[in-house]
Amino acid sequence: MTKILISHKNKTYCSDQQNLRLVLQLLHSLLVHRSHYPVVIMATAERVKQDMPPKGGYRKINFARVFPKPFASSRALVGTYIVCTGVGWYFYLLNDRLVDKYQVESRSSIIALTPLLDAEADREYLKQLRKNRDAEEKLMKNVKGWKTGTLYGEPVYKTVGKDKLIEPSLNEYYVHAPDKVLFDRAYWHKYL
């Protein structure tokens, strides 16, 4: 706490708790009435307790390298590794047998269903060829001399028998379908 010392008329007043009122009145009269007596006003701070080292001084700074304590001994780590590996292999082999069973079942179902799916795909293919042929007949019914499956009565393939199926190109096959269907079929790999 700061103390105020006032020296006036050869008397010194200190702003302790006892003289605080007197010092304030004296200050007021000096400032307001402008006394002609010489006045010395000074402030002094209380002495601050110096922060000093403890008795005997500070302990020495340890700057030597300190190694961490080992988590476990090498034998414990190797033993843990062997146990974990053994348990892991046990569960792997158990799971591997189940996976083999599921894969055999999956392959068997694919083998059993493949002929059926191929037959359905061939059936849909022939149905679409028939729809294309019917659409051609309907579209060209007013054209004289037009015979379906030929070019103005001339067969397109002269060396092929009547019972031989000539597979049409993609454009011929999807001639009556929207363009998006042809695009999706031709560029199917873009969707992978």
Give the key terms.
mitochondrion; 192 residues; transport; 3-stranded antiparallel sheet; respiratory chain; electron transport
Would you write up a description of this structure?
- The protein is mainly α and 192 residues long.
- Among the domains are: 74-143; 155-191, no CATH class.
- It contains 4 helices and 5 strands; from the N terminus they run E-E-H-E-H-E-E-H-H.
- It has helices at residues 20-33, 74-139, 170-173, 179-186, and strands at residues 2-8, 11-14, 39-45, 150-151, 154-155.
- Strands 2-1-3 form a 3-stranded antiparallel sheet, covered by helices on one side.
- A hairpin with a 2-residue loop joins strand 1 (2-8) and strand 2.
- The model has no long low-confidence stretch (mean pLDDT 82).
Task: State the gist of this model.
By secondary structure, this protein is mainly alpha-helical. The protein has helices spanning 20-33, 74-139, 170-173, 179-186; strands spanning 2-8, 11-14, 39-45, 150-151, 154-155.
